[in-house]
Amino acid sequence: MDFSLTDEQLALQETARRFAEEKIKPVAAEYDQSGEFPHEIMKEAWELGLSCLSIPSEYDGVGLGLLDSCLIVEELAWGCSGMATSIMANDLGLTPILAGGSEEQKKEWLGRLANTQKFEQIAFCLSEPNAGSDVAGLQLLAEKDGDDYILNGTKCWITNGGVAELYTVFATLDRSSRHKGICAFVMPSDLPGITPGKKEDKMGQRASDTRVIHFDNVRVPASQRLGEEGKGFKIAMQTLDTTRPSIGALACGIARRALDESLAYAAERKAFGFPISGFQAVQFMLADMAKDLEAARLLTHQSAWMIDQGMRASKFSSFAKCFSTDAAMKITVDAVQVFGGNGYTKEYPVEKLMRDAKLMQIYEGTNQIQRLVIARELLKE
Ligand code: CAA
Fold first, then answer.
1. How far is CA 165 from its chain centroid?
2. Angle 139-172-109 (CA atoms, 0-180°, nearest 5)?
3. Most Cβ neighbours (<10 Å): which of 117, 188, 196, 372?
4. Contact residues for 339 (Cβ-Cβ < 8 A; gap 6+)
5. How far apart are CA 83 and CA 165, in angstroms?
6. How distant, in Å, are the alpha carbons of 47, 150, 210 from that of 296?
7. How many angstroms separate the CA atoms of 287 and 259, rounded?
């Protein structure tokens, strides 16, 4: 078993690391406070080839594997996980096209995202006010009208909802038929009848744009349906299986930053006449942080590798998402503890990391849902 990275992977990691250090980190606190969307940084990331990573080269994309993407995502999240989420949400948004789209649809819609002249983003519209964990219970209605569908309803918690030019949207043909009635669509976000609501004022990851989206008699041609009628639920599940390792990588980025900050602070800060890094009480916290981060990264890389091999990885994707995000939460809470009172102020970076980490246990399926997926897979084996 070879855990080493290839020269290409090391180069990708280095590019992303430099971008995070030079472009993201210096402005992360400012965007966290203002809650503004960092348009310029998103565009620069895209120009550098650090966004829409999973578009295959035959559709003019960078065509990276998931393990390669995870290496990049960890670096970006080290700089700011709100910005990393905004960048990575493009891959979440475009994966339904890869999973369910026809050749023609892939050429058209992935081509738009990969177009080197024009920066575009795509948002994944699945969750609803009354259907977050329960995807099969979604209510956004798609009624057939000739060769079109008319969509009515509301999506919520949509990352990049107010800034994306394209959406992948999940709607039901019949609210009583649960997962069997769900269809996936791809569409421009400026269709008549689509209205993004106000940006959510979130606890953490405040640089990412999260919104409600209203669909009021939105007409979508059948040619923009991804896959057959009723296949939308499976497309959503396949998408989440594929993207959850990236959430593991995001969590590793937050956790690594918390460890880096804690090590530096513990070496400097003195108590009882000595640097606090000399006390076992602090050393044990640092040791646990490092150990849990390493285990989180291994699970993340393993699940990404399985997906790159074409293996079904529902259980391992959920292992990675659940373990890494729980680890990031604990590591960031401990980082605040290492910093003591200073850690609880906005003068120091660790309180942001703690707020940012909390969302990771919630989005892309709560960690309770991950445990449910794991248990179901175990019981099937
Ligand atoms: N791959 C392929 N097919 C799958 C599948 C998978 N991973 N999981 C389930 N299926 C199939 C089942 O085999 C079943 O098929 P049949 O009809 O042929 O039997 C069908 O789908 C229904 O499956 P279940 O009975 O297991 O479905 P369920 O209603 O019990 O729900 C669930 C399963 C795991 C709870 C699912 O609803 C789920 O994952 N919920 C969490 C949703 C989520 O993660 N949302 C995140 C939104 S995106 C976001 O937050 C990102 C962001 O903005 C940054």
1. 18
2. 115
3. 196
4. 261, 262, 265, 269, 348, 350
5. 18
6. 30, 43, 26
7. 9
Kindly tell me the number of DSSP H helices and DSSP E strands found in the chain.
12, 10
Ligand 1 site, CB within 6 A: 85, 89, 92, 124, 126-127, 133-136, 157, 159, 179, 233-234, 237-238, 240-241, 314, 363-365, 369, 372-373
Question: DSSP code of 36?
Answer: -
Collect all residues with Cβ–Cβ distance below 8 Å to 202 and sequence separation of at least 6. Answer: 35, 208, 210, 359
Q: Amino acid identity, residue 182? A: I
Which residue type, as a one-letter code, is found at position 139? Q
d(CA 235, CA 256): 32
d(CA 344, CA 116): 43
Find tokens 């074409």 and name the residue: 310
Q: How high is the mean pLDDT in each 10-residue block of the chain (381 residues)? A: 95 98 98 97 96 96 96 98 98 98 98 91 98 97 98 98 98 97 98 96 98 98 98 98 98 98 98 98 98 98 97 97 98 98 98 98 98 98 89
How close is the Cα of 7 to the center of ligand 1, in Å?
A: 37
As a whole number of angstroms, the distance between CA 156 and CA 158 comes to 5
Q: Which two tokens stand for residue 225?
A: 């349906």
